[in-house]
Amino acid sequence: MSKESINQYDTMAECYNLLMLGGYYDYQAQAQTLATILPPKAKILEIGAGTGLMLKELLDLGYQVTGIDHTQAMLDQAKNLLGSEVSLFQTDVTDFDLGQTYQAIISNGGVWYGVWWEDGKFGYCGHLPDQAEVLKSIRCVVRHIAPKGQLVLSMQDAHCNKIMDLPQDVTYEQRIHDKGNGVFEKEYIFVRNSNHERLCYQKLTLAYIDNSVFESALQAEGFTKPVISPDKRYMVFTAPD
Ligand SMILES: C[S@@+](CC[C@H](N)C(=O)[O-])C[C@H]1O[C@@H](n2cnc3c(N)ncnc32)[C@H](O)[C@@H]1O
Protein backbone atom coordinates (compact mmCIF):
# COMPACT_ATOMS: atom_id res chain seq x y z
CA MET A 1 0.00 0.00 0.00
CA SER A 2 1.44 3.39 -0.93
CA LYS A 3 1.95 5.98 1.80
CA GLU A 4 -0.67 8.22 0.18
CA SER A 5 -3.35 5.59 0.65
CA ILE A 6 -2.78 4.90 4.36
CA ASN A 7 -5.40 6.32 6.69
CA GLN A 8 -7.10 8.58 4.21
CA TYR A 9 -10.60 9.55 5.39
CA ASP A 10 -11.97 9.11 1.86
CA THR A 11 -14.89 6.77 2.52
CA MET A 12 -16.09 8.49 5.69
CA ALA A 13 -15.64 12.10 4.59
CA GLU A 14 -19.33 12.35 3.77
CA CYS A 15 -20.38 11.36 7.31
CA TYR A 16 -17.53 13.06 9.18
CA ASN A 17 -19.28 16.30 10.13
CA LEU A 18 -22.41 14.44 11.22
CA LEU A 19 -20.30 12.57 13.78
CA MET A 20 -18.15 15.45 14.91
CA LEU A 21 -20.98 17.96 15.21
CA GLY A 22 -23.15 15.22 16.71
CA GLY A 23 -21.08 15.35 19.88
CA TYR A 24 -17.80 13.54 19.19
CA TYR A 25 -15.85 16.79 19.64
CA ASP A 26 -16.95 20.16 21.07
CA TYR A 27 -15.26 22.62 18.72
CA GLN A 28 -16.55 25.76 20.42
CA ALA A 29 -15.25 24.70 23.82
CA GLN A 30 -11.96 23.63 22.23
CA ALA A 31 -11.59 26.99 20.47
CA GLN A 32 -12.24 28.82 23.74
CA THR A 33 -9.34 26.93 25.31
CA LEU A 34 -7.12 27.54 22.28
CA ALA A 35 -7.83 31.26 22.61
CA THR A 36 -6.28 31.15 26.09
CA ILE A 37 -3.14 29.46 24.66
CA LEU A 38 -2.51 31.17 21.31
CA PRO A 39 -1.45 34.81 20.90
CA PRO A 40 -4.33 36.93 19.50
CA LYS A 41 -4.51 37.00 15.68
CA ALA A 42 -1.60 34.54 15.46
CA LYS A 43 -0.65 32.85 12.19
CA ILE A 44 -1.63 29.22 12.66
CA LEU A 45 -1.22 26.00 10.70
CA GLU A 46 -3.43 23.00 11.42
CA ILE A 47 -2.01 19.61 10.42
CA GLY A 48 -4.74 17.07 9.61
CA ALA A 49 -7.26 19.90 9.25
CA GLY A 50 -9.97 17.59 7.91
CA THR A 51 -13.23 19.34 6.99
CA GLY A 52 -12.02 22.59 8.57
CA LEU A 53 -14.30 22.60 11.64
CA MET A 54 -11.52 23.71 14.00
CA LEU A 55 -10.07 26.20 11.54
CA LYS A 56 -13.51 27.79 11.16
CA GLU A 57 -13.75 28.41 14.92
CA LEU A 58 -10.26 29.92 14.93
CA LEU A 59 -10.95 32.03 11.86
CA ASP A 60 -14.06 33.43 13.57
CA LEU A 61 -11.88 34.32 16.58
CA GLY A 62 -9.58 36.39 14.34
CA TYR A 63 -6.69 33.97 13.75
CA GLN A 64 -4.90 33.73 10.38
CA VAL A 65 -5.38 30.09 9.51
CA THR A 66 -3.91 27.60 7.05
CA GLY A 67 -4.49 23.84 6.87
CA ILE A 68 -2.91 20.72 5.46
CA ASP A 69 -4.44 17.28 5.10
CA HIS A 70 -3.80 14.30 2.84
CA THR A 71 -7.48 13.50 2.18
CA GLN A 72 -8.82 15.54 -0.72
CA ALA A 73 -12.47 14.67 0.09
CA MET A 74 -12.04 16.25 3.55
CA LEU A 75 -10.32 19.33 2.14
CA ASP A 76 -13.11 19.82 -0.40
CA GLN A 77 -15.52 20.27 2.50
CA ALA A 78 -13.05 22.53 4.31
CA LYS A 79 -12.86 24.73 1.24
CA ASN A 80 -16.66 25.05 1.15
CA LEU A 81 -16.72 25.96 4.84
CA LEU A 82 -13.77 28.36 4.90
CA GLY A 83 -13.92 29.97 1.46
CA SER A 84 -11.10 30.66 -0.93
CA GLU A 85 -9.29 33.15 1.36
CA VAL A 86 -7.98 30.34 3.56
CA SER A 87 -5.03 28.35 2.17
CA LEU A 88 -5.50 24.59 2.27
CA PHE A 89 -2.91 22.14 0.97
CA GLN A 90 -3.34 18.49 0.15
CA THR A 91 -0.12 16.91 1.39
CA ASP A 92 1.21 14.25 3.69
CA VAL A 93 2.51 15.47 7.05
CA THR A 94 5.69 13.44 6.68
CA ASP A 95 6.78 15.28 3.55
CA PHE A 96 5.71 18.88 3.00
CA ASP A 97 7.30 22.29 2.69
CA LEU A 98 5.09 25.37 2.75
CA GLY A 99 8.12 27.67 2.62
CA GLN A 100 7.07 29.67 5.67
CA THR A 101 6.77 29.46 9.46
CA TYR A 102 3.80 29.75 11.80
CA GLN A 103 3.44 31.09 15.35
CA ALA A 104 1.56 27.93 16.23
CA ILE A 105 0.92 24.52 14.71
CA ILE A 106 -2.10 22.61 15.93
CA SER A 107 -3.03 18.98 15.61
CA ASN A 108 -6.67 18.62 16.66
CA GLY A 109 -7.37 14.90 16.73
CA GLY A 110 -5.21 15.07 13.63
CA VAL A 111 -2.00 13.32 12.71
CA TRP A 112 -0.94 13.11 16.36
CA TYR A 113 -2.81 13.86 19.60
CA GLY A 114 -2.64 13.24 23.33
CA VAL A 115 -4.70 10.56 25.04
CA TRP A 116 -5.83 10.29 28.64
CA TRP A 117 -5.49 6.84 30.13
CA GLU A 118 -7.95 5.69 32.79
CA ASP A 119 -5.31 6.02 35.52
CA GLY A 120 -5.02 9.78 34.82
CA LYS A 121 -1.69 9.52 32.99
CA PHE A 122 -1.39 10.65 29.41
CA GLY A 123 0.19 9.28 26.24
CA TYR A 124 0.34 9.97 22.52
CA CYS A 125 -1.51 8.52 19.57
CA GLY A 126 -1.70 9.17 15.86
CA HIS A 127 -2.39 8.23 12.29
CA LEU A 128 1.18 7.08 11.54
CA PRO A 129 1.57 3.44 12.61
CA ASP A 130 5.23 3.34 11.62
CA GLN A 131 7.53 4.94 14.19
CA ALA A 132 10.02 6.08 11.53
CA GLU A 133 7.18 8.02 9.89
CA VAL A 134 6.30 9.63 13.23
CA LEU A 135 9.87 10.89 13.58
CA LYS A 136 9.88 12.09 9.97
CA SER A 137 6.60 13.95 10.52
CA ILE A 138 7.93 15.63 13.67
CA ARG A 139 11.06 16.84 11.86
CA CYS A 140 8.96 18.11 8.97
CA VAL A 141 6.43 19.92 11.18
CA VAL A 142 8.93 21.61 13.50
CA ARG A 143 10.67 23.22 10.51
CA HIS A 144 7.43 25.20 10.06
CA ILE A 145 7.30 26.59 13.62
CA ALA A 146 8.65 30.11 14.25
CA PRO A 147 11.18 30.72 17.08
CA LYS A 148 9.33 30.57 20.43
CA GLY A 149 6.30 29.26 18.53
CA GLN A 150 3.95 26.62 19.86
CA LEU A 151 3.07 23.07 18.92
CA VAL A 152 -0.40 22.37 20.29
CA LEU A 153 -1.97 18.90 20.45
CA SER A 154 -5.54 18.14 21.44
CA MET A 155 -6.08 15.53 24.14
CA GLN A 156 -8.88 12.98 24.29
CA ASP A 157 -9.80 9.75 26.01
CA ALA A 158 -8.09 6.59 24.77
CA HIS A 159 -9.97 4.77 22.00
CA CYS A 160 -12.68 2.27 22.98
CA ASN A 161 -15.65 0.52 21.41
CA LYS A 162 -18.69 2.77 21.44
CA ILE A 163 -22.09 3.50 19.92
CA MET A 164 -23.58 7.00 19.53
CA ASP A 165 -26.97 8.25 18.37
CA LEU A 166 -26.46 10.98 15.78
CA PRO A 167 -28.91 13.45 14.20
CA GLN A 168 -30.72 12.51 10.97
CA ASP A 169 -31.74 9.07 12.29
CA VAL A 170 -28.16 7.78 12.11
CA THR A 171 -26.29 5.53 14.54
CA TYR A 172 -22.50 5.56 14.71
CA GLU A 173 -20.48 2.63 15.96
CA GLN A 174 -16.72 2.42 16.40
CA ARG A 175 -14.88 -0.85 16.92
CA ILE A 176 -11.29 -1.13 18.08
CA HIS A 177 -9.10 -4.12 17.23
CA ASP A 178 -5.78 -4.39 19.05
CA LYS A 179 -2.97 -5.46 16.71
CA GLY A 180 -0.23 -5.47 19.34
CA ASN A 181 2.74 -3.14 19.93
CA GLY A 182 0.41 -0.16 20.37
CA VAL A 183 -1.06 -0.54 16.87
CA PHE A 184 -4.84 -0.91 16.51
CA GLU A 185 -7.45 -0.81 13.80
CA LYS A 186 -10.46 1.46 14.19
CA GLU A 187 -13.67 0.83 12.27
CA TYR A 188 -16.11 3.73 11.78
CA ILE A 189 -19.62 2.53 10.88
CA PHE A 190 -22.59 4.80 10.10
CA VAL A 191 -26.04 3.22 9.71
CA ARG A 192 -29.43 4.78 8.94
CA ASN A 193 -31.80 3.43 11.61
CA SER A 194 -34.98 3.40 9.56
CA ASN A 195 -33.72 1.03 6.83
CA HIS A 196 -30.38 -0.25 8.29
CA GLU A 197 -28.57 1.20 5.29
CA ARG A 198 -24.82 1.52 5.80
CA LEU A 199 -24.11 5.16 4.94
CA CYS A 200 -20.34 5.29 5.46
CA TYR A 201 -17.66 2.86 6.52
CA GLN A 202 -13.95 3.40 7.14
CA LYS A 203 -11.18 1.32 8.64
CA LEU A 204 -8.00 3.05 9.80
CA THR A 205 -4.77 1.75 11.33
CA LEU A 206 -3.76 3.98 14.23
CA ALA A 207 -1.01 3.65 16.80
CA TYR A 208 -0.08 4.80 20.25
CA ILE A 209 3.35 6.44 20.34
CA ASP A 210 5.74 5.86 23.20
CA ASN A 211 5.90 8.99 25.41
CA SER A 212 9.68 8.85 25.42
CA VAL A 213 9.84 8.61 21.60
CA PHE A 214 7.53 11.56 21.01
CA GLU A 215 8.89 13.82 23.74
CA SER A 216 12.55 12.99 23.04
CA ALA A 217 12.11 13.80 19.36
CA LEU A 218 10.75 17.22 20.26
CA GLN A 219 13.34 17.83 22.95
CA ALA A 220 16.08 16.98 20.42
CA GLU A 221 14.70 19.90 18.37
CA GLY A 222 14.94 22.16 21.43
CA PHE A 223 11.25 22.10 22.40
CA THR A 224 10.06 22.23 26.02
CA LYS A 225 8.27 19.41 27.79
CA PRO A 226 4.48 19.53 27.29
CA VAL A 227 2.39 21.90 29.39
CA ILE A 228 -1.24 20.79 29.77
CA SER A 229 -4.11 23.28 29.74
CA PRO A 230 -6.07 23.49 33.03
CA ASP A 231 -9.15 21.93 31.35
CA LYS A 232 -6.96 19.05 30.05
CA ARG A 233 -8.07 19.59 26.44
CA TYR A 234 -4.63 20.54 25.01
CA MET A 235 -0.90 20.11 25.52
CA VAL A 236 1.62 22.72 24.41
CA PHE A 237 5.29 22.34 23.46
CA THR A 238 7.21 25.59 22.98
CA ALA A 239 9.94 25.97 20.35
CA PRO A 240 13.43 27.34 21.12
CA ASP A 241 14.48 30.95 20.28
C1 LIG B 1 -9.87 12.88 13.08
S1 LIG B 1 -9.54 13.84 11.64
C2 LIG B 1 -9.34 15.45 12.42
C3 LIG B 1 -9.78 16.58 11.53
C4 LIG B 1 -9.82 17.96 12.17
N1 LIG B 1 -8.55 18.30 12.75
C5 LIG B 1 -10.92 18.07 13.20
O1 LIG B 1 -10.63 18.48 14.32
O2 LIG B 1 -12.07 17.80 12.86
C6 LIG B 1 -7.86 13.42 11.21
C7 LIG B 1 -7.41 14.04 9.91
O3 LIG B 1 -6.01 13.78 9.77
C8 LIG B 1 -5.75 13.54 8.40
N2 LIG B 1 -4.49 12.80 8.29
C9 LIG B 1 -4.24 11.54 8.75
N3 LIG B 1 -2.99 11.17 8.44
C10 LIG B 1 -2.42 12.19 7.75
C11 LIG B 1 -1.15 12.39 7.13
N4 LIG B 1 -0.20 11.43 7.17
N5 LIG B 1 -0.90 13.57 6.52
C12 LIG B 1 -1.86 14.54 6.47
N6 LIG B 1 -3.09 14.40 7.02
C13 LIG B 1 -3.38 13.24 7.65
C14 LIG B 1 -6.96 12.76 7.91
O4 LIG B 1 -7.10 12.82 6.50
C15 LIG B 1 -8.10 13.45 8.66
O5 LIG B 1 -8.68 14.47 7.91
Decide which structural class fits the backbone: alpha/beta
Low-pLDDT runs: none
**What count of structural domains?**
1
Shape: globular
Order of helices and strands: HHEHEHEEEEHEEEEEHEE
Q: How much helix is in the residues?
A: 25-40%
Determine Rg (CA atoms, Å): 17 Å
Strand percentage: 35-45%
Q: Count of helical segments?
A: 6
User: Kindly state the mean pLDDT as a whole number?
Assistant: 96
Oligomeric organization of the protein chains: single chain
Ligand kinds: S-adenosylmethionine
- According to DSSP, the number of beta strands is 13
What's the CATH H-level superfamily name?
Vaccinia Virus protein VP39
CATH class: Alpha Beta
**CATH architecture level-2 label:** 3-Layer(aba) Sandwich
Can I get a quick summary?
By secondary structure, this protein is of the alpha/beta class. The chain has helices at 13-24, 27-37, 53-60, 72-82, 131-142, 211-220, and strands spanning 43-47, 64-69, 87-90, 102-107, 112-116, 122-126, 145-157, 162-166, 170-180, 183-192, 198-209, 227-228, 234-238.
List keywords for this structure.
241 residues, alpha/beta, Rossmann fold, 6 helices, 13 strands, binds S-adenosylmethionine
